[in-house]
Amino acid sequence: MASPRPHAEEEARGGRLDFCLLRVAARRNRRRLALLVPERVGRYFCLKERKAKFSTEIRAGTVTFLTMASMPVCCIPASTEALAYILAVNGAIVSDTGGPCTVHDCTYNKGQPGCMFGTGNGFDPGYLACKERAKRSMVTATAVGSFVSCTLMGLVGNLPFGLAPGMGANAFFAYTAVGFFGTGGMVSYQDALAASFCEVRLGLQGSLGA
């Protein structure tokens, strides 16, 4: 039977020591990174000048997301209602227009005007399925729009404002401009979207010009 190498124990001990040193170095690097990130972020956002702390701003941002509200105009600083509420309700309100759904999505009486209202046993199931898909898309669009707006406000504007779609303009859009299921309104869903886009673009140009 072969005898163990004379330096086997020393090599094993040295390997354990190297592993321990690597762990200590990794911990130190994590600590340095944990201190460096708040420091750089603090300089960029002027936390010292504003007498704020990195941890306080993180907590404030979390609270803002959970308790944020928007005014009845698209994309302005929020104040009192929950952002999660806006994400859900904005999609529900706008989807009442039917969105991109048409009479060709109906299961019964397909293609006929008013087929979305069903045949007396509730709304048409095919149209409702299309409306539900549109609602999910609108909830996603609301979340993405809020994320982009809040990110730009923080990184470009350097201001601690939360932004979200307005809860007044969407009701006017859904029930007055377009109408329930696209009926009884003043314009079509596509025309109303185009008008909203032009409104936001004019507002943005005015803000940048000012």
UniProtKB/TrEMBL annotation:
Single GO MF descriptor: purine nucleobase transmembrane transporter activity
Q: Where would you find the membrane-spanning parts of this chain?
A: 138-161, 167-187
Q: Name one GO cellular component term.
A: endomembrane system
- Which cell locations does it reside in? Endomembrane system
Entry keyword set:
Membrane, Transmembrane, Transmembrane helix, Transport
Q: Name one GO biological process term.
A: guanine transport
Chief location bin:
membrane
Q: How does it sit in the membrane?
A: Multi-pass membrane protein
The family database entries (PANTHER family) matched by this protein are listed as: XANTHINE/URACIL PERMEASE C887.17-RELATED, XANTHINE_URACIL PERMEASE C887.17-RELATED
Name of the protein in question: Uncharacterized protein
What organism does the record attribute this protein to? Gonium pectorale (Green alga)
Q: What is the lineage of its organism?
A: Eukaryota, Viridiplantae, Chlorophyta, core chlorophytes, Chlorophyceae
